[in-house]
Structures are given as structure tokens and as C-alpha cells.
Amino acid sequence: MGTSSILDGNRFDTGRLDALDPSSRALVERRMNTLGTSYRLFYRRPVQIVRGLGTRLYDAEGREYLDAYNNVASVGHCNPAVVAAVTEQLNTLATHSRYLQDGIVEYSERLLQTFPEPLNRVMYTNSGSEANDLALRVARHHTGGTGIVVTSEAYHGTTASCAEVSPSDGGGGLPGHVIAVDPPNPYRHEGDTSVVDAFAARVTRAFETLRERGHQPAALLVDTIFSSDGVFPVDGALQAAFAAARAAGALVIADEVQPGFARVGTPFWGFARDNAVPDLVTLGKPMGNGVPVAGMVANTEILEAFGRDVPYFNTFGGSSVPVAAAAAVLDEIEQRRLFENAETVGAVVRAGMEELAGRFPEIGDIRSAGLYFGVELVADPETREPATAFAADLINACRDGGLLISVCGPTSSTLKIRPMLTYTRADAELLVERLGDALEVVRRQAKAGVA
């Protein structure tokens, strides 16, 4: 079975069942006896979460954890406005989008106002995976090509077509119509050309290689801050890569499932922070704050032929209850100005991390946009050797200290930190404090030779 850089970097080892307390061990065994073997649990000692509220999660023993990873509930666990909207809609009507309803139209009008003018149509799905699957279908239909370029640790979903373009899922090698290129990584960039130009050149070469293989270009598909690759919000990188893809005859698909909905701050979308405009945009995870709802945004010209030839329909995509949840999330972001909060509180977290970097040489690089952080850990600041084992120890020390984070990147040595948009300054300071405490714990363990 293959390994996944995003799922296995923080995986519970089922061979360590005997190390768990009796209650946890019994529940894990029941889980193993009923769920498919592909499922993973987080942490060396899995956390049994029974309740969530705001920025906090609570385990079966009542212990509180600061959630700095779950970007699904981006406006807070059990957000009262979202709960009320969903409850009211469930008590009124729950049906699909083939009946005429106000909700889907009103929400679509509001959602599209957050996009630049060329992006003026939206189609709804249940998940980001389905949204990316739909975008790939549209791109192939529009271009007549099949060739797809992605980044080397990309994750774009679980459908068959999305798994093919997700190198990080551990499912094996990429098919011939897909090529993965390294993301723009200033920390590890080498050569005379700029990191931006080098990235664009890799995209150009990839499409040339696809043509040589007999696959005409269809799409460049990128997470707009390269989340699974290690978080790289590099100014100019999207603009250059988008231009390279279009020059090759491909469409550009911006995967906003992780960076979208104000995660990066006032720009609202990852592509917008780089003043780049894609052809298709995919949405998911935080869109409904836990209620499954996702979508694809495009322009009329690109959708025209697809809409004429393919009568697409999704039973739950765009149905009454998910749309109500999505509308409530948008209300929360706009009315509470959470896009501004992402910038101001994100700056507090960033400053705290930079202070920690001055004390802990294991912190090699800090990358961030709004409330999304990638903290790359190294075994040696000079050689920049990835500190994979140290990262694994650290996220588990954080878990034991009441802070939930994870890892990403090709060597699972980059901390992936996604505080909720509702974080306060106090939450931000607590995050940094607990991360610092965990760094101290792991450093002491390393000196003592404790695994």
C-alpha cells in the first residue's frame, strides 16, 4: 500500500495499540473492525473529540484543545449563526436545485460578487473533490485536450480523476497524461533565474512534454498557495504560471478549497492575493462550516459549450440546506469582517513564530498568508536537512500540550497551521505559547535521547 505525504505524516500506527489506555484501545479496535483499511487516525495517541465550540475542541475526558488545524469549521465550531440557518432551513424545506428557489440564486449573486468580472457563473457540488472533478471535465471539453499539470505534492480530491492528479495521496505513479512540477519554493530555490521564472519554465516544459506524449494541454491545476506542497504564497508565481499555461493552450484551474473564503485575508481568494485571474475556480471545505457544500466558478464563455452538451445535475449540490449553511458562512465573514481579522491576527501569530525562530534553530523557514502558515523544520540550519522525525515528535507534543496542528510537504517536515478565521489575539498568543512549550519539550527529549 502506498504512503501519503499528507495522511501518513501524522498517522497513528495501529501496531502501537497496546500503548493506548483501555478505553481508547477498545474504540480503535472497534473502528478497525468496521471501517475500511484506508482510513487513518491522527497522532500517536488518537484524540477522541466529543464536542467543539468556537476555536476549541474537547475530548472524552473534558480536556480542552486549541484547534489550529481544522479549516472546515473556519468560522468556529458550532457557529450559532450557521446552526440557526441550517436548523431553520431543515424545518422549512430540504430539496434539490431543479425546483425554483430563492436561496440558491441569492447566494450565487452574493458569492459571485467576491470574484473578478470574468468569473460570473457558479455550479454546485457536495465536495471539493467533486468540484475539481467537474472543473477537469469542463477543461477537457473546452480545450479538447487531456494533459494536466499539477504540483509535486498536490492534493485535489478523492474521485478517480482527482486521485490521478494528486501526487501526495500515495496511490502510485501518475498516469501519462499528468505531469507534476515542483512548486515555487524560495527557501530551497537554486539557480540563476528567479523562483517565479523557474516555476513558469517548469510549467512550460511540462506541457511540451505532454504534447510529445500525445496529450494536448487541458489544464494547469494548482492550489493557489500550494498548501500540501508546504505552503508557498509567492508573489508573482501564479501570474507567471497562468501565463505559461495559457500560452500552451491550457485553461487554469485555481483550487481554492484550502486557501479560499478569506483564509488569506482581505484578497478573499488565494489567486486574488497575486492579482491573477484563473479560468475556473473550485471551492469546498470551509464553504459550509461543516455542512457538505462546494462549487465551481467559471465564465459564461467557457461553460457555454459544456452546458449545451452536458446537462449536469447534482442531487445535493446546491440543495436548500447546504446553500443556507453557505449563506450563513458568508454572512459571518462579511458582517464580522473576518477577512480583516485573518490579517491582523495572522500578523500576531507570524510575529510570535518569528520570535520562536530566534530561539529554536530547528525553525528553518516561516511562510504565511493571512491565517495559513507553513513552518519548515530542519535538522541543521546550514544544510537545511529536513527534520522529519523532529516534526513528528513536535506535533505530538503539541497534541499533548493542548494544541492541534499537523504536517505537510514531501518530507512531512513542514508544520501545517490553519487557525480559524474567528481567532482572537488571545487565541493567537496561546497558539504561539503552546507551540513554544512543545518545542522545548521535544528539544529536551532529543538531548535525553527519548523517542
From TrEMBL:
Please give the InterPro entries that the UniProt record associates with this protein: Aminotrans_3, Aminotrans_3_PPA_site, PyrdxlP-dep_Trfase, PyrdxlP-dep_Trfase_major, PyrdxlP-dep_Trfase_small
What Pfam families does the entry give? Aminotran_3
Keyword list (alphabetical) reads: Aminotransferase, Pyridoxal phosphate, Transferase
SUPFAM superfamilies reported for this sequence: PLP-dependent transferases
GO molecular function terms attached to this record? transaminase activity
Gene3D superfamilies hit by this protein: Aspartate Aminotransferase, domain 1, Type I PLP-dependent aspartate aminotransferase-like (Major domain)
Q: Which family does it belong to?
A: Belongs to the class-III pyridoxal-phosphate-dependent aminotransferase family.
User: By what name is this protein known?
Assistant: Class-III aminotransferase
